[in-house]
Amino acid sequence: GLEEGAKNQFSTFSNFITTINQKKEGIGNRNSPTQLVIPNIKNGRDLPSLCLDVRQKQRMSLDTLPQELKAPFPPEPPLPTRTKTVKDFQDDMEKSKASGDWKAVHNFYSTTFDSFLEINAAFKKDTNSPFNTIEDSGIDAKFVNVVYDALLNTPQDVQKSVLKGIINGLLQEWTGPRTKDDLRAYCILLQNPQFSNTSTYVIYAHLLRQIAALTEADHHFLVHWSKKISQKRFKQVVDRLLQFISLRLFPAKPEEFPPMVKCTWWIPSATKVLALFNAANSLISPPIISYTDFYNSTLDHIDLMEEYHNWQCYGNSHRFSFCQYPFIISIAAKKVIIQRDSEQQMISIARQSLVDKVSRRQKPDMNMLFLNVKVRRTHLVSDSLDELARKKADLKKKLKVTFVGEAGLDMGGLTKEWFLLLIRQIFHPDYGMFTYHKDSQCHWFSSFKCDNYSEFRLVGALMGLAVYNSITLDIRFPPCCYKKLLSPPIVPCDHNTLVGICGVTLDDLFQIMPELAHGLSELLSYEGNVEEDFYSTFQVFQEEFGVIKSYNLKPNGDKIPVTNRNRKEYVQLYVDFLLNRSIYKQFAAFYYGFHSVCASYALLLLRPEEVEILVCGSPELDMSALQRSTQYEGYQKTDLTIRYFWDVVLGFSLDLQKKLLHFATGSDRVPVGGMADLNFKISKSETSTNWLPVAHTCFNQLCLPPYKNKKELKQKLIIGISNAEGFGLE
């Protein structure tokens, strides 16, 4: 970073910054990135191209740009001739370090960063080539990396000269559209490591403002060029932008920055530029960095519900909200939004039921405030199906479960048990609704045709109820399922609109049926004559209840041979048939069941992977983390019984650890916030040590007698967690 002397020097740049502000105001702020398009909340599919990117089916390409964006490229002004190579620069650096004379290095940096033209002259691979395509930025990335890696090791006057040059470039008068050389300069400047220092943030903010205000076509080029940046540099730029947003929201030293009222555009600018990198990241498979690397955990500490309501209420106005850019909001924060949105819906529905009762002069009953499900263990699926079908109007009330013949009161534990047992039965192979694929260890929808798909709707409703009531389920669906569940994320008003249909690829099939996907992949790469050697047509066969049925992938498919020329089409149609067409009715029922409970604009914020985490939690158990966050009642963590307990539990197999978690909490899955979110408690049970441990799953509480030794504790604990089904009252 820069020393104190550099910070003092930056204060003299205020005149430059004032000039920039005046120029911005003078053009009516027409390029200000605060003029952002907020998604039309009335139609979940009309989403801005770079904000709610996770459901964008097709990325913009130059061929699909509107006519006004296809204007001829503005002529590039002639570039100065610069011949310094990477080796020349490295030699200069070595000489300067040895002699202490930094004149040559200073001249290079001050000249190179003095203008956008000079930046291109230094770092463009070939100054005589236009590089006007999205495929090649023309930037000599190796040279850029070497120059930036050396920059922070140079004297302060060298570093200051770079920042002065950047200000000169930002103050340049712009007439007409930006050239590709300008875009190259922006791409290079974004990678400047000096912008990690808060003393440079005023300059950094104006750079981000100019980039955010570029046209959609210019953004298109920057997105495609950014995906060519190395993973290390890409991550550094993303981290720098996230840090900029965090420190502007919660500055460690507020006096370092201008007052918030004078720089309200800082955060919108940075967020929009971050959206460009998120779009670039999603273009690559696998992505350059994980989608979780775009999360900004600082946003967990702002009023997210206000952000959410602003996003809902202001429609297509120009008011900025982080909810326009959901990739930046962590899954933990999204869970909070969904939970509070669910709670508000529950309160609203319960209040309406109460008002209806009173208006009819009927005596209010507490049960009317809940979705009361009463089932027999011996008829679990049929009773559950009947209850949910009969109480459709109550699905958005708080769930309460009663098992007939049992005295347990549902404070949350019975609900967890109901979900667990119901899911276990429905997904059993003998039930026939889902097929379990051993190779991928996941379930997929059975393609068998039937007259009634209500049970698929029940499974969808169960998943919706789980999210709505913050319950995690042990469901093993492939990622493709959650992508389909958000297609579209808001149920369309027109019931003729297809739902649950999404673009699927061979990669999606690999996650479900890897052996078949491998065979299709071999077909695509086969070097011989496909038609003569495979003798296949655009017709596929499936077994249904012992009968082989044939289906054409396209009209007259049984008469169209698969050839080297059309095999890609064959594979794509086959994958689409397996994952979309053959199970359409089953999945549509499942889709409508889920959205009948979980219909919320908050779903627009979620990626398919995040829906999976909300539904299933995490299967990764970290018992050490659970130990650190456990609370005690009647015990101290240093007590001998507690030490015995953790020695035993940490030595358990994964299967026994899951049984313990299920015994104590009603689920063997870890919630979104990790083990700490379980609020696990161990209480001292003042009973005989002959008794087994007891759990209150409603409160994630384990009642443990003070066993005399580790052997006795282990024996009693294993017996207790291995025989835990059913509820009673003490």
TrEMBL record:
CDD domains: HECTc. The active site is at C698 (glycyl thioester intermediate). InterPro entries: E3A/B/C-like, HECT_dom, Hect_E3_ubiquitin_ligase. It comes from the Eukaryota. One of its GO terms (biological process) is protein polyubiquitination. Residues 391-730 form the HECT domain. One of its GO terms (molecular function) is ubiquitin protein ligase activity. Pathway: Protein modification; protein ubiquitination. Pfam families: HECT. Keywords: Ligase, Phosphoprotein, Transferase, Ubl conjugation pathway. It catalyses: S-ubiquitinyl-[E2 ubiquitin-conjugating enzyme]-L-cysteine + [acceptor protein]-L-lysine = [E2 ubiquitin-conjugating enzyme]-L-cysteine + N(6)-ubiquitinyl-[acceptor protein]-L-lysine. Its EC number is 2.3.2.26. SUPFAM superfamilies: Hect, E3 ligase catalytic domain. PROSITE patterns: HECT. E3 ubiquitin-protein ligase which accepts ubiquitin from an E2 ubiquitin-conjugating enzyme in the form of a thioester and then directly transfers the ubiquitin to targeted substrates. This is Probable E3 ubiquitin-protein ligase HECTD2. It comes from Regulus satrapa. The gene is Hectd2.
